[in-house]
Amino acid sequence: MLELRDLRKSYQGRAVLHGLTHRFGAGQFVAIMGESGVGKSTLLNIIAGLDSPDSGAVIIDGQSMAGLDDDAATALRRTRMGFVFQAFHVLPHLTLTQNVALPLLLNGGGAEAAAQASAMLAAVGLQGRGDDFPRQLSGGEMQRVAIARALVHRPALVLADEPTGNLDPETADAILALLRRQIKATGATAIMVTHSHAAAAQADQILVLSTLGLDLLS
């Protein structure tokens, strides 16, 4: 589903990614760990097409991201990807239903968008909260909204950057168990960047990013 081919990236003369090659299978939930500054978030941004490698290729469903113009890359992100951010990025002026429905509306969803958003809110444990606003939620509840929004359009690829960084351990465990269940239910491939071994333990596979590449944690 996702293949990285010899990715290289440098910033101001400092190499961050050194010829990274890896293949991620459909239905996998993979955690990526590594020291600060090693390039974990950079890798997610390159996979999403938000940043470009100096060389190498990101192949999604057989198509290179480098071969897409801006409009095509935006369309691919909108239809095939879901994002879960550490800072939530939930829009404060929209209700929870409206926040979760955004990917469906951007993809041309119509009358069913609100119903699908409500169903996804129920799936993440927020049934009946669709008319609430983000200011009425705890941090854990906001992350549930972020997960619901990331998955509502059934993306093939889910990217999560430190999704539990601001949460207490109990809430983090519940959020990740929820994310794992939803990923398995939709058959998505998921890549989660995390510094937390407890968070990584929820994944099917743990990879460590270093100057040598991506290696399976033994």
The DSSP helix count reads: 7
Mean pLDDT: 91
Strand element count: 10
- Under CATH at level 1, the class stands as Alpha Beta
- How does the overall form come out from the CA principal axes? globular
Q: In angstroms, what is the radius of gyration?
A: 17 Å
User: CATH H-level name... which superfamily?
Assistant: P-loop containing nucleotide triphosphate hydrolases
Structural class: alpha/beta
* CATH topology (level 3) name: Rossmann fold
Provide the fold topology.
Elements: E1 2-11, E2 14-24, E3 29-33, H1 40-47, E4 55-60, E5 63-64, H2 70-80, E6 81-85, H3 96-106, H4 113-123, H5 139-151, E7 157-161, H6 169-186, E8 189-193, H7 197-200, E9 205-210, E10 213-216
Helix pairs in contact: 3-4, 3-5, 4-5, 5-6
How would you summarize what this structure contains?
By secondary structure, the chain is an alpha/beta fold. It has helices spanning 40-47, 70-80, 96-106, 113-123, 139-151, 169-186, 197-200, and strands at 2-11, 14-24, 29-33, 55-60, 63-64, 81-85, 157-161, 189-193, 205-210, 213-216.
